[in-house]
Amino acid sequence: MLLTELCSFLREKQIAPRKSLSQNFLIDRNVADKIVRTADIQPGDLVLEIGAGPGMLTRALLDQGARLIAIEKDLVWAEELPRLQTADQRLTVRCEDILESTLPAEPFKVVANLPYHITAPILIKLCEHVPQMISATMMMQLEVAERLVNFQQSSLSIFIQFFGVAALKFRVTPTCFFPQPSVDSAIVRIDSRPPPTVAQEPFFKLVRTAFQQKRKMLSSSLQKLYPAAVVQQALAKIGVRIDARPHMLSLNQWIELFYSL
Fold first, then answer.
1. What pLDDT digit, counting tens, does each position of 180-237 carry?
2. Which terminus of the chain is more solvent-facing, meaning fewer CB atoms within 10 Å of its CB: N or C?
3. Which of helix, strand or coil describes residue 171?
4. Percent of the chain at pLDDT above 90?
5. 179 conformational bin, left if phi > 0, alpha if psi -120 to 50, beta if neither
6. Domains along the chain?
7. The whole model's pTM is what?
8. What is the per-residue DSSP string for 95-118?
9. In angstroms, what CA-CA distances link 30 with 23, 33, 57, 155, 199?
């Protein structure tokens, strides 16, 4: 829906965008088309759209020939989306929470205007479905996007790098949404890749523990798991200074530290 259509629909239904679901609806078709091009959607691609809302991205994806599964938690919008159904029935609408959804078993691409309050849990769920997920092209808060592509700033950024290659593609201003958010947004594309052959659960426990006190030296932030002297010895063994903080290690150094410990 364009802004005039959206406002008319909201008045007719006597509803308003729900803050609890981070409903800031995309109303700029040019931005929607640019997102679809960034995602490199080809006719016949299976696409998972998260948070379809009024359907601006939905329509752009269908126009590109995608086979589309649109996930929308809000029943009002889930019941409205079938108006976009194609003659060859390429649209499937599912009214459910993406965090509780079953993801496709066949290869798929993700395109989404993410609910900003649950960006991290969604990213984690998607990455855990590599290699079925080919790529994910997603709108998110600019600050979060910048942290993701700067791979040593948080445990989440290390997690993303473990499963894929992320790039910030372009910024989106608040005027492209209704209601307008108080922050700038950005489109990030993550291309999946085979993860390193390392035991994931204990590896990510190590990383998460370290980043819980990210300003402290690793020998201090990892004391819940290992004595300080053991951590310092392991750091020296892999050629990292013993007073290193979590953000100073690359993904490969984290893996080396994991094995050394």
1. 999 999 999 999 999 999 999 999 999 999 999 988 999 999 999 999 999 999 999 9
2. C
3. strand
4. 81
5. beta
6. 3-192 (3.40.50.150), 200-260 (1.10.8.100)
7. 0.90
8. -S-GGGPPPPSS-EEEEEE--GGG
9. 20, 5, 10, 34, 43
